[in-house]
Predict the 3D structure of the following.
Amino acid sequence: MTRKKRRMWILLLCGIGLGSATALTLTAFQDNLVFFRSPSDIMTAEPRPAPDRAFRLGGLVESGSVERQPAVAGQRPVVHFRVTDGAHAIPVVYAGVLPDLFREGQGVVTMGRLGPDGIFRASEVLARHDETYMPPEVADALKRAGHWNPAQGAPPPPATWNTLDPDRRPPAPAGRTGS
Amino acid sequence: MIAELGHFALALALILALAQTVLPLLGAEQRDARLMSSASPLAIGQTVAIAISFGCLMYAYVINDTTVLNVVQNSHSAKPMLYKITGTWGNHEGSLILWVLILALCGFAVAAFGRDLPSTLKARVIGILGLVSVGFLLFILKTSNPFDRMWPPPPDGQGLNPILQDIGLAMHPPLLYLGYVGYAVTFAFAIAALIEGRVDAAWGRWVRPWSLAAWAFLTLGIALGSWWAYYELGWGGYWFWDPVENASLLPWLIGTALLHSAIVVEKREALKTWTVLLAIIAFGMSLLGTFLVRSGVLNSVHAFANDPERGMFILALLMFYMGGAFLLFAWRAQVMAPTGIFAPISREGAIVLNNLLVCSITAVVFVGTLWPMFADALFGAKVSVGPPFFNMASFPLVVPLLLAMAAGPLMPWKRAQLWPVVQRLWAAAVIALLGFFAALLLTGHNVLPAVGFALAAWTIGAAVTDIADRTALFRTRLGNSWARAKGLPRAAWGAAIAHAGVGIVAAGIAGMGLAQERLIALAPGQSTEMAGYTWRLDGVRDHTGPNYTARKATISVLRDGEVLHVMEPSRRWFPIGRQHTTEVSIRTNLLYDLYAVIGEEEAATGKAVIRIHYNLLAPWLWIGSFIMALGGALSLADRRVRISAPNRKAALPQGAATT
């Protein structure tokens, strides 16, 4: 076999490999890309998100909104809460164990579908390892909902965002912590 | 005082690293033996300086020096001594010091064991390693100085994140870093080869052990991280296709490709430019992994609070090293003409196929991991890519990879026939088919796990066939085979064992596809049925640990009315970090794990939420990974590597004939 022919073979194989990888990626993308939406996105969107399409809903857990249904023996525990970005709030229902760092007034990302009744049925509540960590999408959603104006300077540290009272305007931006 | 000493040692290390970059590279360019010989002492000096700095930081942690900001943020006097020590690298700043320490140690190893290397190549490799070191030392000193003081000192520290107070996670970063940094060495070899314009068998012989060692450590590091997530987070899973997890998988995949193509360079002097490219990309992926983990650009379940400035700095480093390397590659790559020619159906051909498939998987994982970042930057769309994408896109690539992986080692170099190889694999094929139908029947027509089991049986069967073939098992007397087995190169054993390890992991993954889970609220005394067992909640009680309080459940697992296991999962409360953690209880018999977690309790009714899992073959995931790493280690102990003789051609024909 000549060098030229061998090179053709290798190029052909590379083409097949890359082509199939691309095809696989694109087909898998089509069904599995999950969009992130903030409560304001959902309330202002026309038409509202289809109930068969899963997406991620993120924001702050509204203070005082967490309500645990009395446990029924032999069934998954059910919990209700509201996710807010300051401007709008979406009621969420979740059957399962909440992650260790789930807390009222803190950032949360949930995944699920929006029912026709306007209640978001979460199949997953995403957990974190660190209570000062703010998911970037949530930070962005708060920014868009008017909780932080980029023109007014640097964002307040994430630790204070997490304890924001969603009903009030945020406190004046604190100085950056040294690290 | 000690902290200032550490800071000073770090700055000193930066100066030494600068000298280590400039002098040997200049010396190699001018063929100046004196300048080139400065490489080794400088590498040793840099190692000592960083080791002193690391020691100072560890000292600050051990005595709980609350005037050091880093200690205040990450430690507490009530923490057990073991976690004070491991806490040194349990945070961003300390882990970077560990990173550069390991990098310096690698430079030291090249200096110490590289006596047989051509002097210019050695000087250039150590110089490039110095350059990598410069970037990271600058990064530490500029953005992540662990020796920053805090005044007035608070009475005590804020404590380490409780879920990180674990022995598995204490070992996870050092192992992972040994892998990442190992690819810095192969990167340095690749750049040095590009500067020299020469890649030969001697180069391959040096790159292979480094890539092998890096790969073995990375395998262990990933497995340990996965194991930690499995037993510490209490979600019952082992891999979530999370960006931070993928960040460690990307260099592993490219490293796997590099490992195999380096063999071709060593044995056959072919695929040279390709191997150099892989070595560059492997390090690029390591840097990318560091960037993804440290910058927080992606939403990850494992993400910690982080600082965008640091992310930008690592991105700049990534662009500097990769940009420079690719420019050099574009300019110099055509110099390295291949000398070994091979047919498409041959051992080399099989390795090319392996590389192709592994790189395709890498591309898929890469796109899936980074797509949210691109989508945000390009279209302003907030999207995420979840496990279904990765499973769906990588599975069709993994199947041919495992199929071909079995045949590769059975093929001779240069030119092979497909049919004889297939014939030799008939036993493995029969076992795989039997496995497929048995799994299909036993699991109630669950096709995907059955395919997984078949592939696992096929891979393990082929590895056994390979060794049986080489030792002429059943074709000659047993004593004869034994003598042959002992005479077989360790690299051959290593390859077969590592491939079998992949098969075991595949079986574990297939088994986990059949895992069962139940989430249920139970009052004390109530029970539930799952996976043929009765799980009874006996009660929940208070428990106190050294720096936490806990609620501990007692769950009896019964079969036919007989208590088999008593499991005690607990939910801990760490007052210092104001954080809950979940302590899983696991009972294993190496075939399956019984796994129990306790969730919240309801004060009014006394009910507790428990989650129970039956995880089939879960232990095989870690056992298989360990066996893979073991195969790598065995291959490293091969005679060819130990004598590392670029000039001693005598060793070559024997090794080439038997492997």
About this structure: DSSP finds 22 helices and eleven strands in chain B.
